[in-house]
Design goal:
This protein is mostly helical. Helix content is 54%, strand content 10%. It has a two-stranded antiparallel ribbon with strand order 1-2. A two-stranded antiparallel sheet has the order 3-4. The N terminus is likely disordered.
Length: 156
């Protein structure tokens, strides 16, 4: 479990209490989106570095479906943000964690079953989560502060 101490949190809570409910929700969602974008940016960098041109056939090519499928979605009813892959990136877990050697179910009698391959683990998403947790929590606070300042400046 991740625990981060944030300086100025009490002052931020006092400022948030002064805002209306709608403005408070907008500020919190803005901060959450900022934190989710930290994971998104690092995930894109990890995909580019670990998956581009990994085989002879794909030398110099980018993994387009994974790159274009990373999404940041802020929850509507509860405070929270989901950073992950949409439908085009449904295979992200296979590229991240890898697969063992797979074989066709049936083979010609007396011969070995044919292999359909394996995917080596790249751990692009696992390393992203581990390396950017603290930075994302800091980005949450700075995004929240920026949104509150924007709302206060709008009132003047």
């Amino acid at each position: 479990m991740l625990q981060v101490k944030v300086n100025g949190l009490n002052e931020m809570l006092v400022v948030l209490d002064q805002l209306s409910d709608v403005e408070k929700d907008k500020a919190v969602k803005s901060g959450l989106r900022t934190a989710g974008n930290v994971f998104r940016r690092e995930g894109l960098n990890q995909i580019r570095s670990k998956l581009s041109g990994t085989t002879k056939r794909s030398y110099g090519r980018q993994p387009g479906n994974l790159l274009s499928s990373i999404r940041v979605r802020v929850k509507r009813s509860k405070p929270g943000v989901l950073t992950g892959f949409d439908e085009k990136g449904h295979h992200a877990h296979l590229a991240d964690l890898g697969t063992k050697e797979r074989f066709f179910k049936t083979g010609i009698r007396g011969q070995r079953r044919k292999s359909s391959g394996r995917m080596p683990a790249t751990h692009f998403w696992t390393t992203t989560k581990q390396s950017k947790e603290i930075k994302a929590s800091e980005a949450l606070f700075t995004g929240l502060e920026r949104a509150v300042n924007r709302i206060i400046d709008r009132r003047k």
